[in-house]
Amino acid sequence: MNAWFKKSFVLSAGLALILSGCGAKSDNAATNPSPTEPGTAQSGNKLNVVTTFYPMYEFTRQVAGDHANVTALIPAGAEPHDWEPSAKDMAQIKDGDVFVYNGIVEGWAEQALSSAANDKRVVVEASKGLNLMEGTAEEEEGEAHAEEGHSHDHVLDPHVWLDPVLAQKEVESIEAGLVKADPANKADYEKNADAYIAKLKELDTAFKTALKDAKRKDFITQHAAFGYLAKQYGLTQVPIAGLSPEQEPTPDKLAGIIKFSKANNVKTIFFETLVDPKVAQTVATEIGAKTDVLNPLEGLTDEDKQNNLDYLGVMKNNLEALKKALNE
Ligand SMILES: [Zn+2]
């Protein structure tokens, strides 16, 4: 492929993203969440690990330590639910020694892995083996069922990374994958994984302690990303959109959320950093509530990066935001 064609391919992919009207912000789409920009890493003997969106990148980086060059395919500022790989991404997937993805969010992954065939590659589907919840019937009626291969009966909730307990399981799966690809460094991967899991356990304790006596249990989110977190800490998520941010609510559903919020005297409506907050703001205005960020960690923004925020930092901010909203 010549340079001109590559450029126009990227341009048209960007245009398609804008035209799709999904509300994802596509600014800074050329940056990578990693301090290691793709192409600049010196591979040497290190493993070449390709991950999908931010939490997969961060968990992998934590376990890999110095033994791997870890890159994220989905750039900062991009929403992973509606992202698709370019030809350049496909080449990167093909060359990777290890491919780490969450599962479900990356509807393109299976096909990409078979097209970019590589017998030696170790594939880690980090949510595999976890007891995944199904979306509610209401969410399944959303418009997002243009997605091929998914019937209405099998919409599973992929957002396990937002539960500090299930996140530990994802870290363990990633650890197993790295050990399989690079058994010589097994002891280091184990040590790194244990250290990060200890931090996730502390995070879990902080959530448990802070939320157990919350005055209210319901919180209104922009899309249904916080189901596992809510379940873990005895809360109820009331999502405006469905399991994917582009599943916008029907007028009936929106009316129901406004009615619920008024009846329960809800004072905060949460929105996200990577998705147009228009609908969340409309609900907030309608009921006279304020808005605040509850970050589903589907990617970092450039601002998050400038503030040195990582998975643990964002989760701590989420906890503060929840604590405030659930006690007002
Ligand atoms: Zn999501």
How does this model look, in words?
The chain starts with a helix and ends with a helix. The strands form three sheets. Strands 2-1-3-4 form a four-stranded parallel beta sheet, with helices on both faces. A two-stranded parallel ribbon has the order 5-6. Strands 7-8 form a two-stranded parallel ribbon. Residues 1-42 and 137-152 have low confidence and may be disordered. 42% of the residues are buried. The protein is α/β, with parallel strands linked by helices. It folds into two domains: 2-24 and 45-137 and 157-199, Nitrogenase molybdenum iron protein domain (Rossmann fold); 211-325, 3-Layer(aba) Sandwich (Rossmann fold), CATH 3.40.50.1980. Helix content is 43%, strand content 10%. The structure holds zinc ion. Zinc ion binds at residues 81, 159, 223, 225, 244, 296, 298.
SSE pattern, N- to C-terminal? HEHEHEHEHHHEHEHEHEHH
CATH domain class of the largest domain: Alpha Beta
Rg is 20 Å
Number of strands: 8
Q: Which structural class is indicated by helix and strand composition?
A: alpha/beta
Largest sheet: 4 strands, parallel
Low-confidence stretches: 1-42, 137-152
Count of distinct structural domains: 2
N-to-C span: 57 Å
* Ligands bound, unique: zinc ion
Topology-level CATH name of the largest domain: Rossmann fold
- Biggest sheet: strands side by side, in what order? 2-1-3-4
- Level-2 CATH architecture of the largest domain: 3-Layer(aba) Sandwich
> What is the 3D shape?
globular
